[in-house]
Amino acid sequence: MNPIGMDPIMVFDNNDEGIVRTRAGLPLATSVGHPITSYRSLLQKVAALHYHNPRFKLLFRGQSKDYKSIVKDRETSHSNLFPSLLRGNVGEDKKALLDRRFQQLRRAEDMLVKRIHEREIMVHQLVRWAVLQHYHVCPTPLLDVTHSLQSALSFASSNNSNSGYLYVLAVPQTTVPISISLESLTQVVDLQQLCPPDALRPHFQSAALIGDYPIVTSTEMTHGRAAMIGNNFSCRLLSKFSLSSIKAWGAEGFRPIASSVLFPDDADSWYKPTQEIRMAIGT
User: Which pTM was predicted?
Assistant: First the structure.
């Protein structure tokens, strides 16, 4: 994918309290994150990002920890926003790992088509990947994000955590279920528009997924098999917020979405078939 841009963009960095005009993307990924101690302050700052960056669609990702990228068996200072298929651990043979994961993904795709007879799944490989990724069947070249700030914050504060991280990613404005941007070399899949209402998880989480364009279908297509920095969605980072004192945010009206709502497995018609695939391929 392409970085968010060489021109200055309005962002929140870790050096200033207010929004500033500076470089976005990878420079922000190396920061400790803009500190947030109140829910009201976060809402105001997300509103400022929307207002000052109208040419972008903002997508959110919440994590309890700021995981770092591994390059040549060493942890870097960059936030790791790689798709799950491209993440690795210290000491792993990157090429062998990627080859194995791509083979596993192809098997899972074949099984998904046989178990869920939905037109979009039958026709679009990207949709198959999005479903497999979102239901945690196997690693894919896509990254889970959400349209919903509330969903992202619920993931950031999962396990009753009092701290976490919120990543705000910028992509060109989207209007259709599968959007391709030649400018940013990215693709966005809006699962809410592609899944029937009885597939509950994508709707309850306001799910979207992002990936590279052209689509990465093999080890040889990744950007430098050792580092793969070109596939790190930190390139599209508009702001990185370091959240603290989350448990006190209830006084300001914040309530994390219950896990039973984010993961409504018993009532979700796609949960059982996807987990059968997961068991079959051994992930």
Answer: 0.93
Task: Give the total number of structural domains in the chain.
Answer: 1
- What pLDDT does 7 receive? 63
Q: DSSP H helical segments within the chain, as ranges? A: 26-29, 39-52, 94-115, 119-123, 125-134, 149-156, 191-194, 200-204, 259-262, 271-281
- Domain assignment present for residue 4? The answer is no
Q: Is the pLDDT of residue 4 over 80?
A: no
d(CA 185, CA 179): 11
* Residue whose structure tokens are 């700052």: 45
Q: Does residue 124 sit within a domain?
A: yes
Q: Decide if 137 is inside a domain.
A: yes
Q: How far is CA 149 from CA 11, 120, 137, 167, in A?
A: 17, 27, 24, 10
Q: Distance between CA atoms of 12 and 22, rounded to whole angstroms?
A: 9
Is 67 a member of any domain? yes
State the residue range of the domain holding 30.
9-281
For residue 55, the Cα-to-chain-centroid distance in whole angstroms is 20
Tokens linked to 190: 């809006």
